Amino acid sequence: MAEAVQAAPAPQSQPMTWVGRFFDSDIWASFKRSKLTMAAAFVGFLFMAAAVLAGLAPQDPFDPAQLDLLNSRLPPLWDAEGQAPFLLGTDEQGRDIFSAILYGLRISLAVGFLGVAFSATLGIALGLIAGYVGGTTDAIIMRVADVQLTFPAILIALLVDGVVKSVLGGQLDGVTTLSVLVFSIGLSFWVQYARTVRGSVMVEKNKDYIAAAKLIGLPAPVIMFRHVLPNVLGPVLVIATINLALAIITEATLSFLGTGMPETMPSLGTLIRIGNNYLFSGEWWIIAFPGIALALLVLAINLLGDWLRDALNPKLR
User: Fold this and answer.
1) Of 46, 123, 144, 156, which alpha carbon lies 20 to 30 A from 189's?
2) Cβ atoms within 10 Å of 251's Cβ, excluding its own
3) Cα first-last separation, the chain
4) What domains are defined for the chain?
5) Angle subtended by helix axes 26-33 and 35-52, to nearest 10
6) Could you tell me the pLDDT band of residue 15, with boundaries at 50, 70 and 90?
């Protein structure tokens, strides 16, 4: 009797990594379909790479030893009076505009990312507590949020910045000033995260998997941060992307008003404020190029935020 031929077992497929899942997702497909989004991502990546590699710039605008007043107010290189290596000209201190923009991008992006991280952390934590605990705790947190919403974000940032500087003293170094800006901007934008997370948590906490987690005795902080939080991060990512542009604009506004970064450590807003003093004297390049850089950076981030909002909303697919 012939023995039955045993079929060879089918090869088991390897589990797909998170990188493979991302490139196989609808979000990546949506990204590839939008040429405008790809262009915005390229511009944003270019600006971030320029900020990281600012140390390779022709000049360190923060080092007074590298500045020469004889090179002040030189026009861009393509002008008849332009001089190498000042590609985009110089300001009144002989500071290379191109190098100053690269270092200014580093400061503006640092304030933006740190401010968004601080506001997101504070808003997510308060939103989780308000939505999960409810009751009096929810009422107190939301009433504070409602009061803050009645004031513009820039006004809150100015108020916090002024109070902190009055407590610490008017003359602050660059690192302390940057920390104050991050703190003031973070306190200006936490409300959006808190209200969004609260609404999502109030929906999620009534689902069966939360009831099962309570049944096995998991503590409330573990349920909130391990089980509820991953399911409400979609809207938070969209808010964070859009708020990054708002944080950069807020920092530029504060610096333009003279309450932000000092002239010895200029951000893009400080460079625009410096250039504004020489706009009507013919040195247009001092304000034009930092302004263009700020506009392109904010536009790219806003376009990415709009795409991310549409990509994460299943009703718009």
Assistant:
1) 46
2) 29
3) 61
4) 104-316 (1.10.3720.10)
5) 100
6) low
